[in-house]
Amino acid sequence: MVRKSLIVLALLLVAALPAVAQESGVTVVDGLASPRQMSFDSAGSLYIAEAGSAGPNLTASDDPFGASSQITRVAPDGTTEVIVTGLISYRAGNPLGAHDVIVTDDSIWLLLGETSDFRIPFTHALVELDKETYRVKTFVDLLTLELEQDPDGNPNQQSNPVDMALTPDGTVLIANAGCNCLMAWSREAGLSVAAAWSFADDNPVPTAVTVGPDGDIYVGFLTGFPFPQGGARIERWSGGELVQTYTGLTAVTSVLVDAMGTIYAVETSLQGPGRVVMVGADGAITPIAEGLSAPYGLAQAPDGRLLVSVGAFGGQPGAVIALPAVQ
User: Fold this and answer.
1) Separation of alpha carbons 32 and 318, rounded Å
2) Alpha-carbon span 193 to 173, nearest angstrom
3) Residue 5: what pLDDT?
4) Which of 130, 162, 285, 321 is placed for a possible disulfide with 25 were both Cys, Cβ 3.0 to 4.6 Å?
């Protein structure tokens, strides 16, 4: 069976579920359309990638799409502004559009997800925008590598980049759920496959990547349908080698490692409310926020609080909430 795009089959379950109350937390911003990953800049502003809510146009395969995907910025004083607009929002229910945003001193880096219609050019891509003018500085095609190399051995012609991280040397790491691979891009070396996981094995579906304070790389996995409880994992890579695997997780969509090396992960809501958990050095899983409705991305505020995006899919209201301090 050809694997569907990220979380498509899961949404058949989620779309019918009622919205659930969020566990106690402070709403940072609401009114968002399918918020996914997010990050802070050096000035303390929060940037949120919103995948949008499809639209009135149709692809060649009759999937709806529009241009409601965007990037929203929340200043330290709470002022909210849409700074990038008009990005492709593809498909209803679980729209794919802007999936992640990272801001440096000079640039805004965007990660744009897939569509089934390859004629739509501003998709399947890593895009660098000028921070002042918002004009495109760099466009990296993330589809052709999948079409030519098929890293996971699955001839599905899918490249769905969903999360990214910057290494200390400026390399961009990209978790690509469509090709079961971790891509790496730099100006000097271009685009390559840093790691790949076989579709024929356990079809892990990488959906999250982050770099720890020691430079180790952490990759989180969704797993394929039917998304077994406890069947997902986080892998820790050091020096190009897999050094540790944290198991017993379910449908991971975001991983964060704080300055002390503590691992946090989002387990999204595939068959009910989702949660944020802490993963100990010994692999012990401790819930720190439960009852979350379609949670997706994690970020850590300058004051140390953890923020999580909710309402990420299923047509639910989107928001970012700050969780109570971890005791």
Assistant:
1) 4
2) 10
3) 43
4) 321
Which residue segment(s) compose the domain that 40 sits in?
A: 8-322
Ramachandran angles phi, psi of 193, nearest 5°: -95, 115
| Residue 1 within a domain | no
* Token code pair at residue 299: 């970020």
Does the residue 132 lie in any domain? Answer: yes
The tokens describing 93, both together, are 């229910």
CB 47 within 8 A of CB 319: no
- Section 86-108 average pLDDT: 94
- Is pTM beyond 0.85? Reply is yes
In a domain, 301, yes or no: yes
Neighbours of 58 (CB within 10 A): 11
| Sequence-separated (6 or more) residues with CB below 8 Å from residue 274 | 251, 266, 267, 268, 292, 293, 294, 295
Q: What type of residue is 208?
A: A
Q: What does the block give as tokens for 138?
A: 């760099």
Q: For the chain, what is the domain count?
A: 1
What was the pLDDT predicted at 22?
52
**Domain at 73, CATH number:** 2.120.10.30
Q: Is residue 2 part of a domain?
A: no
